[in-house]
Structure formats: structure tokens, C-alpha cells
Specification:
Layout lengths: L1 E6 L4 E9 L5 E10 L1 H4 L7 H22 L9 E7 L3 H18 L3 E5 H12 L6 E6 L4 E8 L2 E7 L5 H11 L6 H11 L22 H14 L4 H33 L7 E5 L6 H14 L2 E3 L3 H4 L4 H10 L19
Parallel strand pairs: 1-4, 4-5, 6-9, 9-10
Antiparallel strand pairs: 1-2, 2-3, 6-7, 7-8
The chain binds 5'-O-[(R)-(carboxyoxy)(hydroxy)phosphoryl]adenosine and zinc ion.
Amino acid sequence: MRVLGIETSCDETAAAIVERDDQGNGRILSNVVLSQIDDHAPYGGVVPEIAARAHVEVLDRLIGQALHEAQMTLDDVDAVAATAGPGLIGGLIVGLMTGKAIAMAGQKPFYAINHLEGHALTPRLTDRIDFPYLLLLVSGGHTQMVLVKGLGDYERLGTTIDDALGEAFDKTAKLLGLPYPGGPEVEKAALLGDPDRFTLPRPLKGEERLDFSFSGLKTAVRQLATTLEPLSQTDVNDICAAFQTAVADTLDDRVSRSLMRFRQSFPNVEDPALVVAGGVAANNVLRGCLQDLCSANGFRFIAPPMALCTDNAAMIAWAGAERANRTPPDSLDVAPRSRWPL
Ligand code: KG4
Ligand code: ZN
């Protein structure tokens, strides 16, 4: 079964071909991603209208490239999967309509995929892991802890009540005059900074619920930066170090509670695993922190390769491949959804 996947929910245009054999093994035949970061950088964030137009301009060519790299034509594709949400509506329309058109013209089954399900199922493609497992998704648009119990069976344990974690990194960077996207810049500056000079809040730390909150942290950065103005490079480095330490500490608290919750729900799982996904998973300090937490609690820590942690179409194709032959295809009437909780 070879599936063409299409992803256009945010600022990456992506197409991929993934194969799934009868034993459930996956293989990526091609995975093409075109990032629009340069188009959005002058605005310090993703501009929906620019994103949608950029998807329209390049999607056909990217699909052609994905087929070419997989040494296939559309005739060799067994099914089509496209992201139907959640995300920016303009971009979703572009990818979903293109996927439907290809499926209709070729009379192939069509799967409308929830982007979050794509992230959630990726470790089954990369690491062949079995259900159930825990997923921590930390990206520019999402911060969620999800219990992945089975195909189509997901329980959201916690989510952000305000900013996503990547968004908090990006906004903090902007406040400090660092370029977009801010995550890597904050990490670099933090390496040079003193994490003990300032203490920033740890939102929701110690609370029983498993939600996240980051806007208070960002506000604290703003107040601190205003007090110190004009900021020296040392000030910026020290604030970034304090910010990252506060994030790590908060994650530690939220995630360790989630690991406990997993144990309560599945006391008989012998080899429990925590999977991390999303662009923020590129952060070495946070990764190290999650790794330590997993080791201390007897959990396997799985971080798929970075190219599959961030937005891509291989995860969408894979979600389609997992569903193919197990759930009925979706109707071509399916509509894009900017909000679509798992
Ligand atoms: O998953 P992703 O590539 O895209 C979407 O959110 O759609 O995530 C991008 C986010 C951005 O907010 C970016 O600042 C953050 O991931 N990010 C990082 C790092 N690299 C990327 N955050 C913290 N540390 C990093 N090294
Ligand atoms: Zn994503």
C-alpha cells in the first residue's frame, strides 16, 4: 500500500510517499518539505494569507517531486491522504482540495487526516512502537500531552490554556530583539547566559491538572526587559537562560505527572514510552530534561528524527496508510477544520 500524503496546515508545504506492508512496517519513499520561513520572517510570525498563496504556488510541483523521488507516477499511488485540520484555513483548503482532486481523478481512496494524529502516529513509522504510549507535542501551534491508546483512540490529558510553547519561545525572542523563528535563537543565547541571575515564574507547576500555560512567563519576560532597558547582550543571554530554565522546570513537573497518570491507566504495560514531537523538540536542553525524566521513571524516551518531528507530509501519508484497509475512506465532501481536537 503506497500513500501520497499532503500537508499544508501552517507554513510548510509538504508532499510525501509512504509505503506500509502487510506486517505494518512503514517505509518513506520520499518526503519533500518546503518551508516558508523566509516569507514570514519580516513579520515576526506566520501570516495566513501569505501562507495560503505560497501553498498554491508550489504544491503541484512538490507533489511531482515527491513522485519523482519515489520513482512513481500517480497511477502507482494506492490512496491519497491530506491534512484537513487543525490549522490555518486558507492553507488547509489548498491541500485538502488538491488531495481530493487527485483521489477523484484517479478513483483512489481518500483520507482526511487530523494533523495531530499525524504527529501522534509517527513513532509507529520510525520506531515500530506498539499502542499505548504517551505523546508530548510541543510546536509553534500546539502544546499537548496525549494518551495514544490505539488507532483513532486518543485522549488529550492536557493542553495549553494560552500560548503554545513554540509561540512562547518566538514571542520571547521578539521581545528581546532576536529574529524569527525564536526558538533556536533563544536556545543559542541561553547557552551563553546565567540562568540564576533572574527567576521567572513556573506557570501551573504543582497543579493536579495536566495543562500548560506560558503567557504569564512571556509577560514576566516583557516586564523584566522593560525594567532593564536598554538591554545589553549579557541581559538578553541571561533572560533567555532564565526563560529556558523556567520552561524546563515547568515541563518537568507537567510531564512527570503525565507519566504517573499513564502508569495508573496502564499498570500492565511493561515497556512504557514517551514520544516527543514538534519543532520545540529540537531544543537540546529540553530534550535532555525529558530524557532524564524518562530514565528516572522507567520510560523509554523516543524522539523521532527532527525532519519527522516538525511538520511534514510523511506523517500524513503514514496516518492514511495506518487507516487504509482498517477504517473506511473519507467522503470527498469532508470540509477543512481550523479547529479539530484529537
Ligand atoms: O513543529 P514546527 O516546526 O512548526 C509548527 O509549529 O508548525 O515548530 C516550530 C516551532 C517554532 O515556534 C520554533 O521557534 C520552535 O518550534 N523551535 C524551537 C527550537 N527550534 C524550533 N523552540 C525551542 N528551541 C529550539 N531549538
Ligand atoms: Zn505540527
